[in-house]
Amino acid sequence: MAEPWARNQRLHPTLSNLLPEGSLRELITQGLKVHIDNEFHILSYLGADLPGALVAEPMEPEDVPETVLNTHGKARAIKFDKVSPENKFSLAGVQMKFSMKEKDGRYNLSKGDVLGDWIIKIPSTKHKDVPLNEYTAMKLAALVGIDIPEIKLVELNKLDNLPQINLPNEKLAFAIKRFDRDGDVRIHMEDFAQVLVKYPHEKYNSANYEQIARIIYGFSGDGLADAQQFARRLLVNILLANGDAHLKNWSLIYSDQITPRLSLAYDIVTTSVYIDDERHFALNLGKTKEWHDVSLANFQSWAGRAEIPWRAIKPHLDDVIERARNLWPDAIKDLPMNEAHKLKLKDHWGNLQEDFRINK
Ligand SMILES: Nc1ncnc2c1ncn2[C@@H]1O[C@H](COP(=O)(O)OP(=O)(O)OP(=O)(O)O)[C@@H](O)[C@H]1O
Ligand SMILES: [Mg+2]
Fold first, then answer.
1. Which residues have CB under 6 Å of ligand 1?
2. What is the pTM of this model?
3. 195 and 343 fall within a common domain
């Protein structure tokens, strides 16, 4: 806000992080016939249905102030061509997904000013059974005290008006209720790439879990409760071999429009089943990233650096590991994860340090 931000392509991180990254971005830019890096054009197209509560509206060219046009050489304001209103929602992230409105068990791609209330993540042509994996991992997480939104597996034939996209031979999509929507009301949220003013491509290498924890503890409306929940999620990501808990997979939500709280959990997936010899989680925690080395001592060092009292964290980690040991070996039998993936996950449990090891 202090000075104009004039760039050729890229938006400021606060806005850039609201746009899709992977296959959804390709789909949208192909439809728009603009280059994949042309973020300004993408934002102007998707601005009415962004994650959280921000709305971006194009100005009339004649209303753009001279001062803005002069900040970047000599520029002229133009109006973008109107194109057909398809896929006019924005969701961040790499996987193909849609914001859809549920009615009587069917899901419709939201059009016009109807806001979607579910995120539907369709199966991947690259990785097998991701929806079953994510559903299982999220359910296991909930069993050890992780706060998650409502989730479902939905048959693909219940999804209406999807664009033409490649689908593998799988029948189910993963559905998660949007916590930034409540009927027609938008609830503001921001992910930790936005909080730390980093671009999406910096999501793995520009921060660590101490920094996130310090912000949560210092700024949340209930810093201690959210730091405790954050600690639980860090441990769950280790136990479930989720190597993808980068900056954009953590968000703050502003339910009263003012006070940040840690949002419900999302995108917990056993990623190690897709990546050969995956050994690392996403960001540093108490100086390590190694699943097979990490122990309670790293968590204690993490808490120390984040200046959160260890005595307030330790009982939550103890509770997670105790519940995981008691509940998961049975619970996983009834969950829909692919059998080969279950075996890999259970191997992972046996390879963790003693503090966190789980017997199958
Ligand atoms: N239940 C939810 N309610 C609101 N927003 C959500 C919800 N789940 C996810 N999001 C938002 O949508 C984005 C994409 O979701 P998600 O992280 O599950 O997708 P992804 O493509 O698997 O991500 P990645 O690129 O990390 O693999 C998240 O970064 C978050 O901003
Ligand atoms: Mg994600």
1. 21, 51, 91-95, 119, 149, 176-180, 191, 244, 248-249, 251, 266-267
2. 0.96
3. yes
